[in-house]
What we know:
Blueprint: H1 4-8, E1 15-19, H2 27-45, H3 49-78, E2 81-85, E3 88-93, E4 99-104, E5 108-114, H4 117-122, E6 124-131, E7 135-143, H5 145-153
Antiparallel strand pairs: 1-2, 2-3, 3-4, 5-6, 6-7
Helix pairs in contact: 2-3
Amino acid sequence: MGRYVDDILQPGEKVLYSTNAHWIFYLPATGLWIVALAFFGLSQMVVAETPASICRWLATIAAVAAIYKMLTAWFHRWTTETDVTNLRVVHKTGFIKRRTFEMSLDKVESVDVNQSILGRLLNYGDVTVRGVGEGAETISTIASPLDFRNHITAR
């Protein structure tokens, strides 16, 4: 299974820039792994058997939740593509239920970038592409949003 954008390229069209969902999607899983390790470490320090057993169970629950969050973040990043070609902007999400957004570069009216303080520090943000007569589409939490915007607006 190849990339979606490679399957839809028209003759003479080439990919100029590709980006993906930012790695910040892994942050909840990382937090849960830290909680799981903390409970496991606590279970090793507790002398009494019942509190140690409870800590091990809590560590197991946190680890299972961390694995779930890690897999969902990975799947989201794997099934999301955001590209700029020399003719259009293409954004695809989903695996079985696919949602795509494509807009000709000639129809792009403006490109807005919205970043929080953490987004500026870690280089991620939301990009809203507004089209002439086509409405607006927001692409959430992508890596390098300013580079993405610059590749859309540069001609």
